[in-house]
Amino acid sequence: MTSVVARDRIRAPQRPGDVIFSTATVVAGSLILAVLAAVAGFLLIQSLPAFVAAPADFSGGFTNFWAYVWPLAFGTLWSALLAMIIAIPLAIGIALFISHYAPRRIAQGLGYVIDLLAAVPSVVFGLWGIGVLAPLVQPFYANLVDWFGWFPLFAGPVSGTGRTILTVAIVLAVMVLPIITALCREIFLQTPVLYEEASLALGATRWEMISMAVLPFGRSGIISASMLGLGRALGETMAVAMVLSPSPTVLFQLLTSQNPTTIAANIALNFPEAHGVGVNILLATGLVLFVITLGVNMIARYIINRRKAFSGAN
């Protein structure tokens, strides 16, 4: 009779396919880390001259790099935050409609449309924002200023073109909507049928079943999908550069003609004409965007790991 120790020593023979596959996965994972480290190192080395640049090297009358990059960082975070406030509730609602409310044929067709929307180039969204959205919402912006001008976010004077930070946020929300919706839809479809049937058997309505079973099960996935969408919003370039009328200021007003720009849009607009230390300054702002994106993803990972124990999946 084979002893327990002898059985523990018995191992399956290593097949060539297993060795090749495991080696390829290790190499691929290491390559990602190497590329990330190389990008971070390149940005850091190229950014060093910007940190000690003279005031004359900065456009707009800024005295140092941090005064120059602060309005850009603010515009990046502010526009992305507004976009996520608009996109996340819509994405969750659309995903729930596809997964739990719509008939199968309608759900399949709507799912295909959502997936195709994610493949639309950002320049098309920029053209749509300039030619369609901005003129369409400008009268509504004027009414908002008339009705709610006492509230700081809607204080005037209103932009005559509609090309404001709120318009950019709407464009970004439309751009990130397919990403969040597609992921949330797949997460909601993975909810164990036993959970749903048990809730309905106890007399819960469909919405009560969703709130008690589906949403708790997919909480971590919703956060992950939102962070992927946020990464797209933080790094978007062309749509913001085409729609926004930027100014190097920190403003919370949503409807005025003066609007803070983003780091990515500022790099895209100024890099072709930059030279000397100006190139290093733009690369340094790219480093700041890199750090912001990395920090946001680390915070999201911390939240997901913290909430995992409370998820219905566990």
Summary, kept brief:
With about 325 residues, the chain is mostly helical. About 75% of the residues lie in helices and about 0% in strands.
Count of structural domains: 1
Helix count, per DSSP?
12
CATH architecture: Orthogonal Bundle
Shape: flat
Order of helices and strands: HHHHHHHHHHHH
What is the beta-strand fraction? Answer: under 5%
How many strand segments?
A: 0
CATH class: Mainly Alpha
Helix content percent band = over 70%
InterPro entries: MetI-like, MetI-like_sf, Phosphate_PstC, Phosphate_Transport_Permease
Family: Belongs to the binding-protein-dependent transport system permease family. CysTW subfamily.
Transmembrane segments: 20-45, 65-98, 110-134, 165-189, 276-300
Function: Part of the binding-protein-dependent transport system for phosphate; probably responsible for the translocation of the substrate across the membrane.
